[in-house]
């Protein structure tokens, strides 16, 4: 006998397929032997295979031999030696925020979980009686929109990528942040901006900080590529460390997916740093207590394995040095692919300028290709990339970079 219910399931609409996962599915269905996947946001070696970092293999071996290893719950805040090492990694071991005990951290479900925890916390406690707007770069990681809207925070965008120069629209960015309502939340990519690969210079970061301070905005850093972008951990964390030295109150979402290759292990960290002051420790204590309550209701306890791997490496000098070498291997290969692609496009005389390929940094590059050209590349050459022209540089290697360059050349010339 049917039961009555107030829930009308027939009004639930079919959600659109996630564009990136749809692209991955289409690539898998393609049987062409020359197909190229430039949509995937994960590192691939020169043979287009997933690469398990050698240092991760060593740490994994150590873990498996540990007679005391168990599968008990971690604390709500996560593995303490992991979160403390994560603080030192992103803030610097000598950071004034750590010396003055102005930071608190929780282990999260990778960077996505860290962004969500931060968004949820801000929706509840950042000027709770006033509607605050979140500002994202245009473009940004698409998941930012969904995460913040899910917790009820309205959002707008600030100009970021210049289609004309294929670089940073710095004036547009600064002007938009300057004109945003006072006390807005400004989401910033710490390095290797996703999806453009375009980063501000250090002097530009100083100006951005100046404007954010003047308008009393709240900075929210998303850092998914520390060490992976340039091969230099300190360089990739420069913007965050500068803001902290300048006394900003801010939060940071930190991911270990890319720089450790721990994609499926979902190891991440959320950090809240308060401003200097006599009540800083008290503020951090209260913030930590509320974050713990939110974490408890969301996931109770974070997963242990990825955090244990990262913790072993971060807390051991020898393993840490090996990790830095692994980071240079990954970032170095991507830099070489940037050089090779630009060189081949210029050799072919492909219409347009291609210096932005090497000017940009990190996993992704905004090629400047139009949606029409992207679709033609897929149809004619079995090259898979997002419609906005973003490619994962990690998908290129010495075996396919020339094929891709020729495919781009053909598509651009055919659509002029």
Automatic annotation (TrEMBL):
Single annotated GO MF: L-aspartate:2-oxoglutarate aminotransferase activity
Keywords: Aminotransferase, Pyridoxal phosphate, Transferase
Keyword field contains Transferase: yes
Annotated EC: 2.6.1.1
Domain Aminotransferase class I/classII large: 34-407
Gene3D superfamilies on file: Aspartate Aminotransferase, domain 1, Type I PLP-dependent aspartate aminotransferase-like (Major domain)
Cofactor needs: pyridoxal 5'-phosphate
Entry keyword annotation includes Aminoacyl-tRNA synthetase: no
Enzyme class: transferase
SUPFAM superfamilies noted in UniProt: PLP-dependent transferases
Record-level GO cellular component terms: cytosol
Catalyzed chemical reaction(s): L-aspartate + 2-oxoglutarate = oxaloacetate + L-glutamate
InterPro entries given in the database record: Aminotransferase_I/II_large (IPR004839), Asp_trans (IPR000796), NHTrfase_class1_PyrdxlP-BS (IPR004838), PyrdxlP-dep_Trfase (IPR015424), PyrdxlP-dep_Trfase_major (IPR015421), PyrdxlP-dep_Trfase_small (IPR015422)
GO annotation terms (biological process): aspartate biosynthetic process
Assembly and binders: Homodimer.
Further comment found in the protein's record: In eukaryotes there are cytoplasmic, mitochondrial and chloroplastic isozymes.
UniProt family annotation: Belongs to the class-I pyridoxal-phosphate-dependent aminotransferase family.
Name of this chain's protein: Aspartate aminotransferase
């Amino acid at each position: 006998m049917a039961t009555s219910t107030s829930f009308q399931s027939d009004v639930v609409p079919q959600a659109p397929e996630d564009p990136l996962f749809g692209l991955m599915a289409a690539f898998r269905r393609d049987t062409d032997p020359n197909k190229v996947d430039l949509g995937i946001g994960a590192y691939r070696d020169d043979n287009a295979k997933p690469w398990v970092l050698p240092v991760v293999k060593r740490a994994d071996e150590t873990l498996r031999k540990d007679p005391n290893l168990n599968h008990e719950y971690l604390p709500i805040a996560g593995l303490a030696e992991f979160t403390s090492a994560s603080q030192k990694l992103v803030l610097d071991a000598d950071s004034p925020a750590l010396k003055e005990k102005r930071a608190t951290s929780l282990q999260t479900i990778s960077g996505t979980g860290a962004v969500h925890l931060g968004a949820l916390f801000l929706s509840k406690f950042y000027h709770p009686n006033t509607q605050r707007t979140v500002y994202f770069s245009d473009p940004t990681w698409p998941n930012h929109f969904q995460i913040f809207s899910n917790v009820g925070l309205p959002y707008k965008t600030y100009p970021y990528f210049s289609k004309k120069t294929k670089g940073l629209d710095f004036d547009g960015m600064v002007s938009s942040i300057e004109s945003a309502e006072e006390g807005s939340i400004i989401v910033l990519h710490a390095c290797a901006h996703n999806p453009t690969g375009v980063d501000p210079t250090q002097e530009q970061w100083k100006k951005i900080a100046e404007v954010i301070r003047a308008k009393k905005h709240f900075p929210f850093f998303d850092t998914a590529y520390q060490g992976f972008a340039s091969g230099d951990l300190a360089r990739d964390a420069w913007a965050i460390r500068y803001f902290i030295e300048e006394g900003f109150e801010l939060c940071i979402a930190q991911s270990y997916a890319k720089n450790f290759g721990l994609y499926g292990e979902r190891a991440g960290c959320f950090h809240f740093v308060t401003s200097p002051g006599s009540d800083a420790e008290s503020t951090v204590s209260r913030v930590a207590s509320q974050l713990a309550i939110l974490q408890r209701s969301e996931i109770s306890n974070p997963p242990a394995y990825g955090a244990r791997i990262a913790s072993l490496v971060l807390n051991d000098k020898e393993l840490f040095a090996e990790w830095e070498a692994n980071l240079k291997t990954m970032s170095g290969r991507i830099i070489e692919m940037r050089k090779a692609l630009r060189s081949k496009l210029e050799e072919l005389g492909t219409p347009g300028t291609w210096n932005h390929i090497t000017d940009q940094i990190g996993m992704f590059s905004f090629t400047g290709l139009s949606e029409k050209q992207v679709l033609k590349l897929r149809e004619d050459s079995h090259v898979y990339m997002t419609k906005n022209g973003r490619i994962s540089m990690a998908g290129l290697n010495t075996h396919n970079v020339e094929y891709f360059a020729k495919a781009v050349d053909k598509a651009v010339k055919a659509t002029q």
